[in-house]
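Handout, section B. The chain below has 869 residues.
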Amino acid sequence: MRKSAIAALLLVILGNIGVWALWNRPVAERSWGGAISGVGYTPFHPDKSPSKGDKASAEDIEKDMKALEGSVKGVRIYSTTDGSEQTAPIARKYGIPITAGAWIAGKPEIDEPEINGLIKLARDNNNVRRVLVGNEAILRADVTVPQAIEYIKRVKKKVNVPVSTAEPWHVWLEHPELADAVDFLAVHLLPYWEGVPADQSVDYAMFRYNELKTKFPNKHILISEIGWPADGPWRRGAEASQVNQAKFIRTFLNVAAQNKLDYFIMEAFDQPWKREIEGTAGTSWGLWDAWRKPKFPMIGEVTELRNWPLLCGISIAVGFLPLVFFLWRRGGDLKFGGQVFYGAMIQGVSSVLVFTFTAASVAGLATTTEIAWGILVFCQLVLLAVMLIDGLELTEVVWQDRFKRKFQPCSAAPLPNAPKVSIHVPCYNEPPHMVMETLDALARLDYPNYEVLLLDNNTKDPAVWRPVEEYCRKLGPKFRFFHLDNWPGFKAGALNFGLAQTAPDAQHIAVIDSDYQVHPDWLKATIPHFDRPEVGFVQSPQDYRDWSHDLFQRMINWEYAGFFHIGMIQRNERNAIIQHGTMTIIRKSALEEVGRWGEWCITEDADLGLRLFEHKYEAVYMPESYGKGLVPDSFSAYKTQRFRWAYGAVQILKHHWRDLLPGGPRLTAGQKYHFITGWLPWFADAAHMIFGIAGIIWSLGLLAFPKYFEFPPSVFMIPTLSVFAFKVGASLWLYEARVKCGFWDKVGAAIAGMALTHTVGRAMWLGMFTSGRPFVRTPKCENQPALMQAFLMAREEIALLLGLWGAALAIVLVFGHENRDAFMWSGLLVVQSLPYLSAFITALINAFPNIGLGKQRPQPTETAGAGAD
């Protein structure tokens, strides 16, 4: 490994450590060195849940009381029928007093056993010092105030300890008659649920405490619940975090000691099962985690993740081998900046995955949440894989030190006996004047030995094809016209017919679309590359004309340019280009060897290129333009063309999958990489369809069934938004490096590309589950569509756009006032809607072609690239 690669490796690892350390930098908070007055206690360990009918075991309670001994002065329990009643006799052995509670639900079958159990518990255990009849039962509207008072009176008659019920502060203020019925006030002060920022929360709790003290001066006040969660959604200004929990608890304990408060911290141990009823926040109020380990120290500095050095080390270990492999393989041909940039991407992805899987390992998830996490983890893996693929392309484009396979056009005049080329021009129902212009350009070729076969494939109207036939006669014997009626095999069938009619002495087959006007130097500049017998085909980029004064056509022209001036150049480095059925020249013997054109596939050109690679032929890609065609006239035609390309890609993958596997011997690793990763973003488009629909459904679940649905954790939403931002930034950066167009043209190309997301996604899904879709040509020279036609062209996209926007708006209106995660989720829905918005914008631009977009960069009039003359 080179010194620069070693330096990049060390720099990336040190940078990763620095990021983890910065994110988990210690926070100095007020320390606490004494015992805690009391803690709320629910005796369920991670493998149990009362909602499933589980009962707490004496063994678990014994372990918990032993863990609490010496740290707390009292314990509060909430039920006398779920196993919690065993706490009192066990706690007595450790000298821990109990405040016992009965869970009141307003149902006699639940309430009566609870009350009877509470009475029995108080009578049988002298360490039960107080009892609470109900916990927020009035707040939940399970019982009315008179019903609660009646229950309290019943219990007071049967026990010799103080009796009360536990409710939030405002319930006591609103119902002084309730205060009259109890021996003391048991108040819940939970500023997090009220959206109070952490740094103001203790003061706020004391304000409410003093308000009650003023209102009821003759009543003892027990703060029966007070605390802060370590995890959960934002609630207005309240952020649930480990640091904020430690800050709140340690500050409150000091204030409580100064004011001699009677309190129970909410709560002793994290309870994962509460996710089912209170969401993520309900699981993480414990001073100890679900495995009975302290979550933060009471003395000294606090960090968000106490085990962050371990997680950082794991992330380094996960990313180390991929990082070393990358630097070992690419350290010699990438500049130092590229090594560091992509190395940092690998390490960053490793850290995100470690953090994600750590968050996903939390026990006791609700069923819907488990399903959501499973889907989200998979989706995040796909997103990160796509980002790494895009990042590698960006790295190679920006920091490539040298090109290994750069081919120059040949400028020498061809000899009279130059290899003969048979040029095949398939067409179907094309405007005669356009085809004649194509033939005129072919007639001007500066090459001594070629023929042209015009293959009119299944055009029904003689008025369309007969003028072209007559024009071929006028051009002389080099031009031959064939009209095929009811010919099978689509374009590939016509090309195979042409192959059978090719002059016997022709050595190479060239193919162009019927709208292409080639440069006179095309054959002269490219045919000499066939002097090497391993060359199977020579490809020039698709290029376009007559688009500069139409904004829609201008946008899609630059969208096409990105692939041919970025992706194809990088694929050429690994001899893995996509063959395109125009501006391509194939060695005739190679074409016959691999079985001619594949009539089973609607993208016969890409299939042929892959088969040539499988037979060990080499491709030559020359980025210079030697011919220009016409871009589609309508958004509908643009979508139809991309649908065909995407559907054909799935056909090819299904047909060639064995050769693309790691053990397949016929393709190189680089070829497999590009053919798989090159089409992976299209599978991501297919996934995007599902994400969009799932986002709408999940939003409906949040709105209609908030008990069972919660917002996806930010550990997923933030990376998803970040990946989108990276893709946009990378696209603009790539265009800046390789495609010579203005900023607004880059934006237009990005909009046009995103506008095809739904079309590509639909094609991929259909391709996976169907076969044999008919070949549909891309129409040219069409009239502009009407406004209504623009809406019809994007009707599916508009429906999804409105669905996502409606869901985002509803989420903000319903949850935005109290939950900041609602804004992040809504933002994610809006980001998901951008491809659909792009489709609508593109359709409108197509309907109104005179719209301007920025300042147009002047275009050269010469077709051939530098060095072609």
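Note. The first strand starts at residue 27 and ends at 28. Compare this with the example in section A.
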